[in-house]
Design goal:
Strand 6 (97-105) and strand 7 (108-109) form a beta hairpin. The chain is built from no helices and twelve strands. Helices cover 0% and strands 46% of the residues.
Amino acid sequence: RMSTLELKELSHPSGEVIKIAAGKTLDLHAQGTTKMPAGSVIQVITKTHSQNAAVSTTASTYQAMGSAFELAITPKYANSIIVVEVDSGMAYATSNSGLLMNITKAGSVMYSDTYPFYHRDTSGNLYSPVHLTAQGVAGGTSAITFGVSFYCDGSGTVYAYHGTSSYNIKLTEIAQ
């Protein structure tokens, strides 16, 4: 038999804690919304991708890695912080070229720095994992797509993704 208890505030005596009985569940979302304290993780979305084809360019302007390397999140709160983490398991640049990478939000690069994420090779093909991270305010509660763009600094070819390596992207919404 279920009962409904309506309260304005739930409190406990100093030095005590509010406990849920063993084997019982406190469901904070079944009937409405819950306001989490600042710093609480609201949601985490992840994607792992692998493909046979490498993703490369000789262009000197940003090129998107493509939709297979993107991930969308629908923020629960407009003022949340979205933390973006990307791991490209094996990136490389041909001799005397630099690989510049940048996280994108809705197709636009998030950092305007000259070298947001940079990998240079001066001797031959140098393979390396690349870890990128960025964060910013969601700015709304509509879906936002994050991904990676990259370009070549030099006269060679750069590879943001080596075929058959792993690519991981993680989006974390944090309450403010």
